């Protein structure tokens, strides 16, 4: 059996793939034979991820890593354009095909190939990029820090949805995962901006779920508590007592790959 272990080939787009959960998930999915499109702002980290995936079993040109800032609508628009341009190729893309692409494809390829493309391949965008405020009571949080948390965690996802959902609507297929948090379902002192942003992610997800056609799904995912730079920012040294991103990614990849349209609007936990 192939490394795909019975799950059809997926193209998974992960924002914030440079480190932490996004990086671990990218590596795990690539190991399982899926195609990863990753973005983050820091090019060095993307380069390191790209070279880690450059082995004979996972050719580097299969994956695509692009620098993008999810806070910027223009940057995400450009990301969507480049993804379409570079990955708008028939063997791995389903949701990103434009109607015109599909017509051309059906004329130039055998019917069976075109049929496989329409039925077997799914795109799974994982809106994972995020940031947290430094531990502080709300009246001590500088305005620009509050803005950065909201711009990244909430507006960043909105930017992704604005530019990627229309591409997915063409085939009315695809699962969107919005990274939430336990703190998107409860309150905590010193991280009020972050909690506010993750509650917004939950509300955004449930509302967009009502706008998507049958066949598509958007879900909010609480990943649990994992030892990353973000956790160290709020938990300090005790972050090292929590699970490693690699252990988390084993469970998360399986869960994400098994999501279906029936999960639309759900708030799930890894
Ligand atoms: N770790 C946990 O225990 C935990 C718990 C609950 C929820 N979460 C959520 O899980 C997600 C990942 O968290 P993590 O712990 O892996 O955090 P992390 O280690 O700090 O990694 C965050 C990633 O997001 C990227 N990023 C940040 N701002 C960005 C922007 N404006 N545009 C594009 N990429 C950006 C970062 O890369 P650049 O800085 O290079 O852009 C980095 O790759 C977040 O949404 C977080 O809220 C984590």
UniProtKB/TrEMBL annotation:
What the entry lists under CDD domains is as follows: SDR_c
Query: What Gene Ontology terms for biological process does this UniProt record contain?
Result: folic acid-containing compound metabolic process
Q: Which InterPro entries match?
A: NAD(P)-bd_dom_sf, NADPH_pterin_aldehyde_rdct, Sc_DH/Rdtase_CS, SDR_fam
A GO cellular component entry from the record:
cytosol
Q: Which domain of life is it from?
A: Eukaryota
Molecular function terms in GO for this entry? oxidoreductase activity, acting on the CH-OH group of donors, NAD or NADP as acceptor
The text of the family note is:
Belongs to the short-chain dehydrogenases/reductases (SDR) family.
This chain belongs to the protein called 3-oxoacyl-[acyl-carrier-protein] reductase
Tell me what organism the protein belongs to.
Answer: Fagus sylvatica (Beechnut)
Taxonomic path: Eukaryota, Viridiplantae, Streptophyta, Embryophyta, Tracheophyta
């Amino acid at each position: 059996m192939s490394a795909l272990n019975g799950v059809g080939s997926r193209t998974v787009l992960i924002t914030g793939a440079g480190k932490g959960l996004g990086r671990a998930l990218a590596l795990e999915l690539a190991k399982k034979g899926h195609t990863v499109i990753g973005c983050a702002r820091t090019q060095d980290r993307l380069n390191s991820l790209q070279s880690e995936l450059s082995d004979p079993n996972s050719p580097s040109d299969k994956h695509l890593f692009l620098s993008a800032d999810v806070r910027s609508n223009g940057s995400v628009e450009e990301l969507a354009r480049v993804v379409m341009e570079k990955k708008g190729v028939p063997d791995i893309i389903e949701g990103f095909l434009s109607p015109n692409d599909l017509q051309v494809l059906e004329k130039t390829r055998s019917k069976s190939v075109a049929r496989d493309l329409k039925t077997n391949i799914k795109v799974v965008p994982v809106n994972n990029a995020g940031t947290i405020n430094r531990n502080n009571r709300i009246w001590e949080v500088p305005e620009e820090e509050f803005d950065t948390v909201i711009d990244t965690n909430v507006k960043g996802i909105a930017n992704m949805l604005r530019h990627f959902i229309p591409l997915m609507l063409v085939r009315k297929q695809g699962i969107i995962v919005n990274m939430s948090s336990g703190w998107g379902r409860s309150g905590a002192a010193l991280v009020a901006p972050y909690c506010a942003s993750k509650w917004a992610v939950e509300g955004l997800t449930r509302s967009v779920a009502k706008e998507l056609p049958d066949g598509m799904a958007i879900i909010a995912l609480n990943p649990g508590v994992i030892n990353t730079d973000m956790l160290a920012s709020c938990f300090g040294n005790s972050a090292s007592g929590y699970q490693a991103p690699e252990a988390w990614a084993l469970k998360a990849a399986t869960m994400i790959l098994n999501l279906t349209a029936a999960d639309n609007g759900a708030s799930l936990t890894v």
